[in-house]
Design goal:
By secondary structure, the chain is mainly α. 78% of the residues lie in helices and 0% in strands. The chain has a single domain, classed as Serine Threonine Protein Phosphatase 5, Tetratricopeptide repeat (Alpha Horseshoe). The protein contains 8 helices and no strands.
């Protein structure tokens, strides 16, 4: 398993997996997702920041922004965005997974593991992928 590839795939999935609705912020989210698919990360970041400004109550906008921040390797900003997303929707499993990935990059394994456990409890469909990341963390930390 190429761990970096798995993390990149998960981060990209965070940016494109959730349904979008017809508002200005949602149109910006779709534009940001398209830019991410094209590999235009700086442009996607700018667009997703505009989405957050257009609707600061959108957990989805913060989740997508956090995913783009991870792809740009700005893990601290990603964590902040995912915290904002979770604050707006405590059942946003994707935000917990994204936050965990950012924590992994910062070698903050206990926090990553806790976020993954929370994601799994919110969305049991994520169990297989989450368990794979938890196993990787446990191997790194000697659990």
């Amino acid at each position: 398993m190429n761990f970096r590839r798995v993390l990149s795939a998960v981060a990209l999935a965070l940016c494109i997996a959730m349904p979008v609705f017809a508002t200005e912020a949602d149109a910006l989210i779709r534009q940001g997702e398209a830019k991410l698919k094209e590999g235009k990360i700086p442009e996607a970041l700018e667009t997703l920041q505009q989405a957050v400004q257009a609707n600061p109550r959108s957990s989805l906008a913060y989740t997508r922004l956090g995913g783009a921040q991870i792809l740009s390797q700005d893990y601290a900003a990603g964590i902040d965005s995912f915290k904002q997303a979770i604050g707006l929707d405590a059942n946003n499993a994707d935000a917990f997974v994204g936050m965990a990935i950012a924590y992994i990059h910062g070698t903050r394994y206990p926090l990553a593991r806790a976020a993954l456990e929370q994601a799994k409890s919110i969305d049991p469909a994520k169990q297989e992928d989450v368990d794979e990341l938890i196993a990787w963390i446990d191997k790194r930390t000697g659990h």
